[in-house]
Amino acid sequence: MASVETAAEHERILREIESTDTNCIGPTLRSVYDGQEHGLFMEKLDARIRNHDREIEKMCNHHFQGFVDSITELLKVRGEAQKLKSQVIETNVRLQEDGKVLIGSMEQLKQCRVQQRNIATTVDKLAHCLPVLEMYSRLQEQMRAKRYYPALRTLEQLEHTCLPRAGQYRFCSIMAENIPKLRIHIRETAMTQLRDFLESIRKHSDKIGETAIKQAQLQRSLDSSVTLQPRALIGRRGRKEAAMVTESSGEGSSPLSEQDSGILDVEDEEEEDVPGAQDLVDFSPVYRCLHIYTVLGLRDVFENYYRKQRRKQARLVLQPHSNMHETLEGYRRYFNQIVGFFVVEDHILHTTQGLVNRAYVEELWELALSKIIAALRTHSSYCDDPDLVLDLKNLIVLFADTLQGYGFPVSQLFDMLLEMREQYGEILLKRWNITFRQILDQDNFSPIPVSTEQEYRQYTSQFPLQDPELEKLSFPKKLPFSEFVPKAYCQLKEFIYACLKYSEDLHLSSTEIDDMIRKSTNLLLTRTLSNCLQYAIKKKNVGLAELVQVIINTTHLEQSCHFLEEFITNITNVPPETANATKLYGTATFKDARHAAEAEIYTSLNAKIDQFLQLADYDWMSAAQSSGGLTTSDYLVDLITFLRSTFSVFTNLPGKVAQTACMSACKHISTSLMQLLLDPEVRQISIGALHQLNVDLKECESFARASPVAGFQGDTLLLAFSDLRQLLDLFTQWDWSTYLADYGKSTCKYLRVNPHTALALLEKLFKPMKETSRKNVVLAQFKKADRDRQKLIDAVIKQLRNLIAQHHA
Question: Do residues 527 and 426 lie in contact, with contact meaning Cβ atoms separated by under 8 Å?
């Protein structure tokens, strides 16, 4: 019974799977796995799948033959359809070909009949109106040829003679109505040509200006006896044109008429070696328009319009591009346009009568000059390249010379160039600051080795070295200075050349040029080079050897200053003894740098000594030993070794510097040892510690007696340790009676021992003895020597305090 129910349930599930959406089949399958007969269900499911597969196969077999037959029929129909389509296309092509001939014949017949009718009508009309039409035709030809003055005369003849005789035809009335319009058209056409002319000169201003500047540049290179004026840009031909316009403007005179477009016909070609404004721009439209407006009685209108438009163009030309300062080409284009503008205006001024006058041109130039200077000041301030500033200066000079040749005042431009000289100097200083720093960074701060005569001559050609002793030495040998010296000297000369280049063509006297060069060179020396030397001296990790070489280098550069003076004198031809001549400050600059290097040597040497002294590790409570059993502290041995090697490098230094450094080092050692002894953190000191310090001091004194630096007289260097020596002798020899008896006398053996110092050290020595006596009162009673020593110490302390009190009193 259970199996029947299970089979029925499975049958229901299968039907539900077949009829249910696959998204909802989950609960149905879960019910199968909830039971225990899922294996039997799988068998039924497989049987059901096989049944469906058999049904699908039967259905496909039943319909397959019909499908194949349908495809076969369709293929047959397609072939027939293709044949039918080809026949239709062929028939259509033949029909089109056969019809073309007929259609062409019909069109030709139609055109012939229309032409016959039109010809008959035209012949009939022209027989009545031929004179009027001929006159009007002539008018049209003149209009097409842009011969506007003959056209105006034809209009007058047509209006007053031909049209009244022709009769009342409509075209005659139309012509009569068009005559005013034609006059307006001629006027507007002339104005259009003027606008085209204005546009043309606006476009060609750059080229005109470039040509004018080139000619000015050529004239500057000519012999001074050949004085060619830039007016040749206009030439005689322009003045002839002006005469022609003047004659044509008079009453009863013959206008430019039939050949007014030939104003620019080439004449005197042998005089036109360089193309001028008239070769680049056709000026005939402005002459023609001026004449037409004069004939029409509208000359004032024309003059006002021309001047107004040219003012607008002037404002556009004078407006520089925002990125003009980036390249020299931007400045050149700006100047070319301005020169082109004023060359055209000058040409118009000299070839027309009254269209523009001198006052108008001068007013434009004043406006332009203010805007040019303002623009150059603004844009040149963005420039940080000295080569670009120098090229810009040359371009401005050429620009000014070109316009000056046309009679325009340019003194303000040269004044502005002198202002730019300060900016140029600052830019040069920035570049040379970088150059000097690069030279210093690349320098190895060691003498230059030379192995051949050629190398030696190469360096002496770069730097004026005068050392007879060095000359006598055989190769290989070393120059006393490093690579920095010849490179820096060459850069100083390059800077002077750069300053000289800017001063050229500024119409300055030799004295002014000399003064400018010297002032700029002084700035380079006192500000730029001085700062670079300070940078090299003060930068981190600079060694004593490098500082020594800096001193040697600056000494040689200081000696070369008078050669720089001679160099400037030679290129400016101004003797140095000239009144009010500026002197070079190089000597003071190099002296200051040398003094800074010397101070840095002293500071660095003391800092190095401090590093060694930090390694000092004294046992301040060590027991007393015999002097033979004590050895010099390791740190002091290393310090003395370092000092010996360091002072051996000082042989090339001036004697005073080496001696000062040596004395400073010894004093610093003595002072530091004294500070160690009196350090407040050291509360107790034993006699044994003093003996060890005494041994170290003897080693220092031995170093001083060996004269590590030549030039000291006698035991002068020992004086650096005299304070510490007298103090230690006082305590190690316990010679208080002598000290107290002779205190204050010039012959005192312990003259350098201060009572404060002695008291402080004595209290540090006395403190352990005092504490020991308190702990061992009983034992102390039996040590008579200790009691006597303690009484002596108390007496010495008391007397020292009395001395201190007397000193304060």
Answer: no
Mention every residue, 6+ apart, whose C-beta is less than 8 A from residue 278.
234, 235, 237, 238, 264, 347
Helix (H) or strand (E) holding 263: none
Phi, psi of 457 (to 5 degrees): -65, -35
Distance in Å from the first CA to the final CA of the chain: 138
Q: Is the dihedral of CA 275, 277, 280, 286 positive or negative?
A: negative
Helix, coil or strand: residue 485: helix
> Is the per-residue pLDDT at 771 higher than 80?
no
Query: Average pLDDT, whole number, for the chain?
Result: 80
- Three-state DSSP class for 763? helix
Name the nearest CA neighbour of 475 among 447, 454, 453: 453
Q: Are 197 and 286 in contact (CB under 8 A)?
A: yes
Q: What is the pLDDT of residue 223?
A: 38
Give bridge partners of residue 450 from the DSSP assignment.
Answer: 477
Segment 537-575, tens digit of pLDDT: 887 777 777 888 888 888 888 888 888 888 888 888 887
Tokens of 443: 């320098």
SS3 644: helix
Residue 297 backbone phi and psi in degrees, to 5: 80, 25
Other beta carbons within 10 angstroms of residue 82's beta carbon come to 10
Q: What tens digit of pLDDT does each residue of 137-161 get?
A: 888 888 888 787 788 778 778 777 7
388's tokens: 């670009």
Q: Per-residue pLDDT tens for 637-652?
A: 898 898 888 888 776 6
Query: Where does 145-169 have alpha helices with state H?
Result: 148-157, 163-166
Q: Which residue reads 């063509």 in tokens? A: 505
pLDDT tier for residue 682 given thresholds of 50, 70 and 90 = confident
Identify whether the C-beta of residue 499 lies closer than 8 Å to the C-beta of residue 512: no
Helix (H, G, I), strand (E, B) or coil at 25: coil
Please give the Cα distance from 133 to 162 (Å, whole number).
Answer: 9
Q: Which two tokens stand for residue 782?
A: 């039996």
CA separation for the pair 263, 244 (Å, rounded): 9
Q: CB within 8 A of 622, min separation 6: which ones? A: 686, 688, 689, 692
User: Radius of gyration of the chain from Cα atoms?
Assistant: 57
pLDDT at 142: 82
Between CA 385 and CA 395, with CA 390 as vertex, the angle to 5 degrees is 125
- Give residue for tokens 């005068």: 466
Closest Cα partner for 241 from 287, 275, 197?
287
Residue 726: how many other CB atoms lie within 10 Å: 17
Q: What pTM value is reported for the model?
A: 0.63
Give how far Cα 777 sits from Cα of 87, 780, 783, 785, 790, Å. 152, 5, 10, 14, 13
Q: How many residues does the chain have?
A: 809
336 close to 213: Cβ distance less than 8 angstroms? yes
User: What distance in Å separates the CA atoms of residue 798 and residue 87, rounded to the nearest whole number?
Assistant: 150
In sequence order, the β-bridge partners of residue 478 are 449
**Cα 315 to Cα 340, 380, 411, 598, 716, distances in angstroms:** 14, 20, 22, 62, 83
Query: How far lies 615's CA from each of 198, 611, 635, 676, 715, in Å?
Result: 90, 7, 6, 12, 29
Tokens at 136, concatenated: 């009007």
Instruction: Identify whether the C-beta of residue 718 lies closer than 8 Å to the C-beta of residue 701.
Output: yes
Tally Cβ neighbours within 10 Å of residue 563: 14
Residue 443 near residue 482, CB atoms below 8 Å: yes
337-366 burial: b if 16+ Cβ within 10 Å, else e: bbbbbbbbbbbbbebbeebbeeebbeebbe
